[in-house]
Amino acid sequence: MADEVSVLVEGGKASAGAGLGAALGPLGVNVGQVVAQINEATKGFAGLRVPVIVRVNPANRQFTLEVGRPPVAALLLKEAGKEKGSGKAKTESAGDVPMAAVRRIAEAKGEDLFGRTVEEKVNQVLGTCVSAGLTVDGKDPRALLKERIAARGAR
Predict the structure, then answer these.
(1) Domains in the chain and their CATH numbers?
(2) Are 96 and 140 a contacting pair, CB within 8 Å?
(3) If we measure between CA atoms, which residue out of 155, 149, 150 comes closest to residue 127?
């Protein structure tokens, strides 16, 4: 049975610091090699926090990485060029994202989202826009959701 270490690292900037080094050291793996592979695997997510699972085989000290995807909210905020969402999502907008980005995020997250179709996953990403206080193409995402649901019902 493999030992597992789950960490949340900034894309491309993992270090052998206190958290990761302390967790991996007792497992007998080369921490430098693990950090290098994590940074290589996550460099495309620069500026975002990415979940990573390191599995170590205790018999031979070999390791494998499982790199997750950043949360939908983090991807949306990056698209909007914001550090964080609105603290008052119902009354204040934190920024705006294009609908094309909403669709791209829904497609990229794939199986991480619920829903059978891309359209259902787009609706889920729109719901995250509501929570983060982001508008989509200058419109309230709640109104867009209502329009999309009404259009679907009209078919």
Answers:
(1) 3-67 (3.30.1550.10), 72-154 (1.10.10.250)
(2) no
(3) 149
Phi/psi of residue 55, each to 5°?
-105, 125
pLDDT bucket at 18, cuts 50 / 70 / 90: low
Q: Is the pLDDT of residue 155 over 70?
A: no
* Spatial separation of the C-alpha atoms in residues 4 and 99, rounded to whole Å: 38
Distance CA 25, CA 27 (A): 5
Q: Summarize pLDDT for 44-101 with one digit per residue, the tens.
A: 888 888 899 999 998 898 999 999 888 898 899 988 888 777 677 667 788 899 999 9
pTM value is 0.71
Q: Please return the burial class of 23, using the count of CB atoms within 10 Å of its CB with bins 0-12, 13-18 and 19+.
A: middle
Q: How many residues does the chain have?
A: 155
